[in-house]
Write a structure and sequence with these properties.
Mean pLDDT: 79
Structural class: alpha/beta
Helix content: 55-70%
Largest sheet: 4 strands, mixed
Strand order of the largest sheet: 2-1-3-4
Number of domains: 1
Distance between the termini: 31 Å
Order of helices and strands: EEHHHHEHHHHEHHH
Number of strands: 4
Number of helices: 11
Low-confidence stretches: 23-31, 210-217
Shape: globular
């Protein structure tokens, strides 16, 4: 799967990293029936899978339950208790750093990236910035993931209170979010690396087979090129030249960039306002 990344300076030495939305993906998808614990157990025990594969299935199960619960809270009428819980959750989500949101968007299915950046910027600097955020993210989010896991048993004790256990579900979300950001960091670091041997795992992901032993050389030779493509953009440079990046980019400039490259407005504005 190919991903389109947009990278540009947003204030001085601070840069914005965002993933473009794929226009081919429909906005609305048919509803998928919720998986029960019985279905989860059947899926894990039916096939012989490794521990990491089973852990991934459990993570997806928990993520699905959390997403459905969040949607139900969002639909709650104004002024209700559920609506107040949704408001509290929204304020907590606002504290999540934009770099974490970006790294979470790099899925394990991503095998190629097209990197769009201002034509006036050195492409080597762009790749160096991407490697830096990936390497830093892999360290930080792995640490935060284990930290969240250690807090889960403590927050689970609040279940005795006659109120929704918001601390537990927040820490559970933070564990999941940091785990996905860690995986995205590892994937991005692989995608923008200079090591051709590391790219063989991307060939294995696309073919559905593993690469080992002497087949590493064969897989490396089968690659048409690196999994990253640097795409300088004159249009992005023109949009940025409308304002000095030593100052915060104005909202109008940010919105124009988001419209041109199909970026999430809230994500990019959060990058601007958090630096």
């Amino acid at each position: 799967m190919k991903a389109r990344l947009v990278v540009f300076p947003i204030k001085g030495r601070n840069w914005c990293f965002s993933k473009s939305a794929c226009p081919s993906v429909p906005c609305s998808e048919p509803a998928i029936p919720s998986t029960t614990l019985k279905d989860l157990w059947r899926k894990i025990s039916a096939d012989r899978r490794s521990m990491p594969e089973n852990a991934e299935i459990v993570v997806d199960f928990v993520s699905d339950k959390m997403n459905r619960a969040w949607i139900n809270l969002e639909k709650a009428p104004d002024g209700t208790f559920k609506n107040k819980i949704y408001g509290l959750g929204s304020r907590l989500l606002a504290t999540v750093k934009p770099s974490e949101i970006f790294l979470k968007s790099i899925s394990k299915e991503t095998t190629n990236v097209e990197i769009n950046y201002p034509a006036s910027v050195n492409p080597r600097l762009v790749r160096r910035r991407l490697r830096h955020i990936a390497m830093r993210g892999s360290i930080i989010h792995k640490r935060y993931f284990y930290g969240s896991l250690t807090l889960l048993p403590i927050t689970a004790g609040f279940a005795v209170l006659p109120l929704p256990n918001v601390p537990f579900f927040w820490i559970l979300f933070r564990a999941y979010s940091n785990w996905k950001a860690f995986q995205g960091s590892e994937r991005l670091l692989l995608l923008v690396s200079d090591c051709s041997k590391a790219w063989t795992s991307l060939v294995a992901d696309e073919s559905g087979t593993t690469t080992a032993g002497d087949s590493y050389k064969q897989a490396a030779n089968s690659l048409p090129g690196p999994p990253w493509v640097l795409q300088p953009s004159e249009e992005l440079g023109k949009l940025l030249s409308r304002q000095d990046v030593k100052d915060n980019l104005s909202t109008s400039v940010v919105l124009d960039i988001c419209k041109e490259y199909a970026l999430d407005n809230k994500h990019v504005l959060k990058y601007r306002d958090s630096v």
